[in-house]
Design goal:
By secondary structure, the protein is of the alpha+beta class. The chain is built from 15 helices and 13 strands. It has a nine-stranded mixed sheet with strand order 1-2-11-8-13-6-5-3-4. The N terminus is likely disordered.
Length: 421
């Protein structure tokens, strides 16, 4: 990645953000051939702008060769050979539970049997419309090498962190019949996402950040289905007239869609469809994640404000509730930043030999993106850490929770980046 894209004369980048964006100014670029990482970074990551990559970017993937029939349909026989007894999470699209679909864990072969019967019955079933989603296939079967993450999405701090602690990941496989869908939402931690259709077609409805506020009912609850007729009832949705029309994208087989950070969306399978999906974030949208966490904590604090004077551990309790709702608290976010920073410091200290990194995939990604990108990452960590050190709620954390001193980490970063800058 070229130096000019990553650095300013001050050596520290603050990325400007618009909290509310109009749909009319947005369009979708269709990328048919390879572009430089720098161009993707400058034209899509930093502006937080969606795009679609052509099927050329996935044509060599093993899953596109082996999971799909010559007619472009899911290859049920081949899939059963690989995953027959594997337990998989399956949601019922016909049932609403809070603002999502309830899930159950069933054997993969049971879902395929259902899917075959669903097709034979004219895409209907008394069991409802079932959708295999959020399946951590990559984590369970890494040896399959079913696909390879495109370089544009390889600076992936989210999965880098969870791989390092061996707890979770945000790489998923979705499989669903025609008519299956995902309700209106924004992705975890307001991360980026990319989604590749292995077979089938999807329809995406996307709203840029800020538009979701016009799609809340009078109680402040986010719409479940943005196409539902009830949204036109101003008594229930008083701000609906301010909402723009969504950005609509039809995603064909083999294509990859890049969904920017904080863009709410709703997705339909127009055909029997299989897709690979990753949630990811990096230095380009780290500030959006940090703002999201601050907003989530503020929401929790408002909800239990009445107990503030009666609980000595009120602030700690708010962190516990936030983690239960979002999956992370301020302490773990700080640890997340430290692990990301440590790997970049190690890379810069050993460059050009990156064999000291524990993760082969991380070493390959950093080697490909280069020392200037590693420096950019560290600058972004610095910017957020300095913001956290000035945050009153962060200051109230028990120092023993952090297990490291942010000030010491900042000094390490300055020393590691001095020569590169």
């Amino acid at each position: 990645m070229d130096r000019e894209t990553l650095h300013t004369s001050s050596g520290l980048i603050k990325i400007p953000r618009q909290t509310h964006q109009r749909c009319s100014s947005h369009f979708v670029d269709y990328i048919e051939k390879n572009m430089s990482y720098s161009r993707f970074f400058k034209n899509y990551l930093i502006p937080n702008h969606p795009c679609v990559f052509s099927k050329k970017f996935t044509e060599e993937w093993n899953c596109r060769k082996h999971w799909v029939t010559e007619e472009g349909k899911p290859n049920f026989s081949r899939l059963l050979q690989q995953f027959e007894e594997t337990p998989v999470p399956v949601a019922n699209c016909n049932v609403k539970e809070y603002n999502a679909n309830p899930k159950q864990i069933i054997p993969f072969k049971e879902f395929i049997q259902y899917w075959r019967e669903y097709i034979q019955n004219g895409h209907s079933s008394p069991k409802g419309c079932l959708y295999l989603k959020d399946w951590h296939m990559h984590r369970s079967f890494p040896e399959h090498n079913s696909y390879r993450t495109p370089i544009y999405f390889s600076s992936d701090w989210l999965n880098e962190y969870w791989d390092s602690i061996e707890v979770d990941d945000y790489r998923f496989v979705y499989m669903g019949p025609k008519g299956s869908w995902t309700p209106f939402h924004a992705d975890v931690f307001r991360s980026y996402s990319w989604s590749a259709n292995i077979c089938g077609r999807k329809k995406w409805l996307l709203y840029p950040p800020g538009q979701e506020e016009f799609l809340r009912d009078r109680h402040g609850t986010l719409a479940y289905d943005v196409t539902a007729p009830m949204l036109q009832d101003k008594g229930q949705y008083p701000h609906i007239d301010k909402a723009c029309q969504p950005l609509e994208i039809i995603q064909e087989a083999g294509e990859i869609i890049f969904v920017p950070s904080g863009w709410h969306h709703q997705v339909y399978n127009l055909e029997d469809t299989i897709s690979i999906n990753h949630n990811w974030l990096n230095g380009s949208n780290l500030d959006i994640m940090w703002q999201f966490l601050q907003d989530e904590l503020a929401s929790v604090q408002r909800e239990i404000e009445e107990w503030r004077e009666t609980m000595d551990t009120w602030h700690q309790h708010c962190q516990v509730i936030m983690k239960s709702c979002t999956g992370i608290d301020y302490g773990e976010f700080a640890t997340f930043l430290k692990i990301i920073a440590n790997s970049r410091i190690s890379f810069l200290n050993s460059y050009p030999a990156s064999s000291s990194l524990q993760s082969r995939h991380l070493a390959e990604a950093l080697e490909c993106l280069g020392p200037h990108h590693a420096t950019f990452d560290l600058q972004r960590v610095t910017y957020i850490l300095e913001s956290m050190l000035n945050n009153e709620d962060f200051k109230r954390l028990d120092p023993s929770i952090l297990k490291f001193q942010p000030e010491a980490l900042l000094q390490e970063i300055r020393e590691a980046t001095r020569s590169t800058v």
